[in-house]
């Protein structure tokens, strides 16, 4: 671990157009080892600075490294997962709480959020969007169509929905297990724990998506992030359409998360090296618990976010199946 002191500031850049328009926020490295978005943001900012790109209207705010401590350490988290239990803290207790005091107002102030991530396993980029319009207690929302258009424009082959409702099911099971009394255990059992950047944005009005730009070290990740930023700005009328080729003509596959399985012990292991969106059949063995119990797929579908080195008590993998949702 670095002996340098913790970072004492969050670097935020804003380009304000001279014509009124939407307020876009683009973020990256919420998890410190997910750097594709850092490269994409850096390139877009350089082109805005040079005049190669012209901002037609509105404002765009960039936070290229949201978690500078985790980024400096080259790992997912600094002191905890910033993209869980995200809200302005009453009394900051760790580094990520202090970041949240600056990040949450930025999320609340924007109209649209593009949050750039990457993932551990092999696989192609995909987008994650929020719920359908509803007035329920978990995640009330009124921008389903606009958010669907945003998810469709960035150029992925797949779009995934159902994050927070699926996570809530996992939290119910997690809360039933005895914790060790640590802050981490308490956070993981908090009903708010599934809330990250996009969920907090939606709670404050407006909409946003999480864009997974491929595997962490994929050399094409920064280029994908760069084009996604440009496509988003074109969609919002902030850049001329000709600055980037349009999204692929093929309609993306739409999947819905329906289950999350935690890794309960260090000895829990997968039966093979899974990649996100590998197909699984009902009853197929996905992993083995430390006590030898098989972990079986409850239904046909796809495995998402398999994390072979997940910490015990955290999400090990998700399961998804075809969605009947329609997007433009």
UniProtKB/TrEMBL annotation:
Residues 21-118 form the Succinylglutamate desuccinylase/Aspartoacylase catalytic domain. It comes from the Bacteria. InterPro entries: AstE_AspA_cat, N-alpha-Ac-DABA_deacetylase. Its cofactor is Zn(2+). Keywords: Hydrolase, Metal-binding, Zinc. Gene3D superfamilies: Zn peptidases (3.40.630.10). Pfam families: AstE_AspA_cat. This is Succinylglutamate desuccinylase/aspartoacylase family protein.
């Amino acid at each position: 671990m670095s002996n340098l002191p913790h970072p004492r500031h969050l670097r935020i850049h804003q380009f304000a157009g001279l014509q009124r328009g939407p307020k876009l926020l683009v973020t990256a490295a919420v998890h410190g080892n997910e750097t594709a978005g850092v490269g994409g943001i850096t390139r877009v900012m350089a082109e805005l600075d040079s005049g190669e790109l012209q901002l037609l209207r509105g404002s765009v705010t960039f936070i290229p490294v949201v978690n500078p401590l985790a980024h400096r350490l080259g790992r997912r988290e600094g002191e905890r997962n910033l993209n869980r239990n995200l809200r302005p803290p009453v009394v900051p207790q760790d580094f990520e709480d202090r970041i949240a005091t600056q990040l949450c107002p930025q999320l609340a102030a924007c109209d649209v959020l593009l949050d750039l991530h990457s993932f551990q396993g092999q696989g192609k980029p995909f987008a994650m969007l929020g719920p359908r319009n509803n007035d329920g207690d978990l995640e009330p929302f009124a921008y389903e169509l606009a958010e669907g258009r945003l998810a469709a424009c960035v150029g992925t082959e797949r779009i995934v929905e159902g994050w927070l409702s699926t996570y809530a099911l996992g939290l119910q099971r997690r809360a039933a297990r005895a914790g060790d009394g640590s802050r981490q255990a308490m956070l993981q059992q908090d009903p708010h724990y599934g809330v990250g950047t996009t969920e907090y944005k939606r709670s404050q009005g407006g909409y946003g998506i999480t864009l997974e730009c491929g595997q962490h070290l994929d050399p094409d990740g920064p280029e994908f992030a760069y084009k996604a930023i440009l496509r988003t700005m074109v969609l919002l009328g902030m850049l001329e359409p000709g600055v980037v080729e349009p999204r692929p003509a093929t309609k993306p596959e739409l999947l819905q998360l329906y289950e999350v399985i935690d890794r309960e012990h260090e000895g829990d292991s997968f039966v093979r090296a899974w990649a996100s969106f590998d197909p699984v059949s009902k009853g197929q063995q996905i992993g083995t618990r430390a006590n030898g119990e098989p972990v079986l797929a409850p239904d046909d579908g796809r495995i998402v976010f398999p994390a072979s080195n997940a910490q015990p008590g955290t999400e090990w993998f998700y399961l998804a199946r075809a969605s009947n949702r329609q997007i433009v």
